[in-house]
Amino acid sequence: MAKEIIHTEQAPAAVGAYSQAVKAGNTVYLSGQIAIDPETQEIIDGGVEEQAERVLKNLKAVLAAADCSFKDVVKTEIFLDDINDFAAVNSVYAEYFTEEQPARACVEVGSLPKGVAVEISLIAVK
């Protein structure tokens, strides 16, 4: 099975040895996104809700580059630096997953890249 590297300028550039997403067959694996503005490549200002919004916008852009949408997402993983932010992140998340919600994991981690509060990765099937 061939794999295709997915890239878009509408989401932050990968800052390491990874791709924004990889498509294998009809499955698209999106790397974790954090609250980086794709135009400036800088962390956005704001709290966890604003960060979650930017993360989901970044994921939406990568999904679009793979000819997918949030309706195609089957699994998400949310990483929080403080599990007490779960309700705030969940309220933003729910605006993007309005029907047929995917399976999901959410965990608290010791720290996240660049000191952000939230990171989300996902898998989509088209």
UniProtKB/TrEMBL annotation:
Name assigned to this protein: Endoribonuclease L-PSP
CDD domains: YjgF_YER057c_UK114_family
Sequence similarity: Belongs to the RutC family.
Native source organism of the sequence: Halanaerobium saccharolyticum subsp. saccharolyticum DSM 6643
GO molecular function, one term: deaminase activity
GO cellular component: cytosol
One Pfam family it belongs to: Ribonuc_L-PSP
